[in-house]
Design brief:
Layout lengths: L23 E5 L3 H12 L3 E5 L5 H4 L7 E4 L13 E4 L4 H13 L3 E4 L12 E5 L2 E5 L5 H17 L17 E6 L10 H8 L3 E4 L16 E4 L11 H13 L3 E6 L9 H10 L4 E4 L4 H8 L13 E5 L13 H6 L3 E5 L5 H10 L7 E6 L7 E6 L3 H7 L6 E5 L21
Parallel strand pairs: 1-2, 1-4, 2-3, 4-5, 8-11, 8-12, 9-10, 9-11, 13-14
Antiparallel strand pairs: 6-7, 14-17, 15-16, 15-17
Length: about 425
Amino acid sequence: MDAPPAEAGSGAVYPVGLRLLDRRVVVVGGGQVAHRRVAGLLEARARVTVVSPEVTPALEALVEPGSLTWVRRRYETGDLAGAWYAVAATDDPAVNASVAAEAEQLRIFCARADDRAASSVWTPAVGRHGELVVGVHGGGDPQRAIGVRDAVVTGLTEGSITDRASRTPAGTRAGSVVLVGGGPGDPGLITVRGRQAVAQADVVVADHLAPLSLLESLPADVEVIDASKLPRGRSMAQEQINALLVEHARAGRRVVRLKGGDPFVFGRGMEELEACVAAGVPVEVVPGVTSAIAVPALAGIPVTHRGLTHEFVVVSGHLPPGHPQSLVDWAAIARLRGTVVVLMGVDTAPAIAAALVDHGRAPETPVAVVTDGSTATQRTVRTTLAGLPRAVVDEGIRPPAVWVVGAVVGLNGPHDVPPPDDSDLD
């Protein structure tokens, strides 16, 4: 139920922010429009009462924990008693008109979802960027307001609109560190909070697997430090990274440690967090979309599937089976019936495949290797455990790559590289 734009001559809007903490708000109606309104009201920590014979499942789920009160009947005169604000969001214009009339009599501001011209208040299109709240009135046209709201929030998130107050010069404020998971590589897959942190940074310490295109939009005065760890190649020592985070934060800078995937999935994020805590530096963790799940999904491979597998395990393959420093119980992994996802396991793939087969996994178990996940050069090679060693060589597979073992590989997702003929792998 979307109300048409209000007439321009219905009066200018006086923008104001309602502080509804612990104040009673009544929402009449229990459908999708009411659902959206309740979400914002609960965020403002209002005491919300919903009056409706039926509500959406999401609203019903809020009743038992006490997040809202549900009056399970149609609206009756007197339901607005004691309210500071009201929302009329039923599918019946007559009911909405009655709610608005009672609100007018009680001098309670009321938003009618079906008729903006008859509302005493217009709800703006609201967006949030950290502690900033952006509210846009579109002259009675909600779609216009939404478009402007989205543009402003996007600009704040990407840094094209500068929040100067939030960028207080370093040295005049306390420094901090944010450990940001950047996702599998596509900059569109970083979280909103992650983009906000990058946009507000004074220093970015970035890995080569992080979405580096985000760095292009940063102001020239933001220092970018390359902390890449190349497979079997150059890398910055973890102790040096920890020291850099602490050093810049102590100088009053906002430091972002930008990683690929999630900071706590083989990302040494906890080591960096512990270093900051030990140094007394405020630190925040922003989880990221881990490549262990996202990259297979982008290749059309779910790590679980109803009736097929009830488990999946993510394993680091940077050390081969039998290595004295390896903490992986490959025999136990092989006995699992579900999905095995291997990260950092290109060079060790032949040894891992052999260990899985030796400990009970069938040689013909399907395997998919996805390289450069989420980027323009993403590629999927499908084979079997027996065929994996040859496929790595013949297909020129190089890091970064994620490989998946299990029946889920055989599901009907996109197959951009046909599986090899097993008869040719002998």
